[in-house]
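Meet my pick.
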Amino acid sequence: MEQRRRYIAFRATGSYRVPDIYKATVHLYRKLGADRNPLRLIHYDGNSQKGLFLCNHRQVGELRTAIENLSGLPLRVLGVSGTIRAAKTKYLLHAKKESAT
């Protein structure tokens, strides 16, 4: 069966660097079971404190909860999208334009 990808956009509520976010991703990956929960950090901007996780469509609900509650960092989920382009437009780029005006 085809595994559809989902992109979870998030914002860190503190000043964190890529290694910190990556460590939190690894922590989640181990906590939830590495064999059944493929979760990858694919984008993180240290200036805006926003990034994207890539996951399987079947685990979106579980991973949304885990990202906000289990990770070692205070992360807030901004939304979920089926394509990386839409995720960046809706949650990463759009928010920058709103805050500039």
Notes: The radius of gyration is 13 Å. Residues 97-101 have pLDDT under 50 and may be disordered.
